[in-house]
Amino acid sequence: MIRVVLPAHLRTLARVDGEVTLDVPDPVTQHSVLDALEARYPMLRGTVRDHVTLKRRAFVRFFACEQDLSHESPDAPLPDAVATGAEPFLIVGAMAGG
Questions:
Q1: Contact between residue 68 and residue 61 where contact means Cβ atoms under 8 Å apart
Q2: What is the pTM of this model?
Q3: The CATH classification of domain 2-93, taken from the options 3.40.190.10, 3.40.605.10, 3.10.20.30, 3.40.50.970
Q4: Which residues contact 91 (CB under 8 A, 6 or more apart)?
Q5: For 57-73, how does the pLDDT look when each residue is reduced to its tens digit (9 = 90+)?
Q6: CA dihedral in degrees (26, 32, 36, 42; nearest 10)?
């Protein structure tokens, strides 16, 4: 099971508390995790990535194992610690402004 931590506004939208767990088939990638997340919580479609291009939204970042994975290929395997459920995959709303 993959553990996913969502930002507060997406937890509210999905009506969940804390992190969610997902059954994701191998290989575990950003793409497969997001596919599973959107399949289980269809109300999140379009909030993390674009409906058509499936690219990450500009103000959304992905982290795992203390690494920023936001600019990695969505089809690159995630760290083993995430694939085994030892560490969560974090979806974070980025801050902007000045």
A1: yes
A2: 0.91
A3: 3.10.20.30
A4: 4, 5, 6, 7, 10, 48, 60, 61, 62
A5: 988 999 999 999 999 99
A6: -170
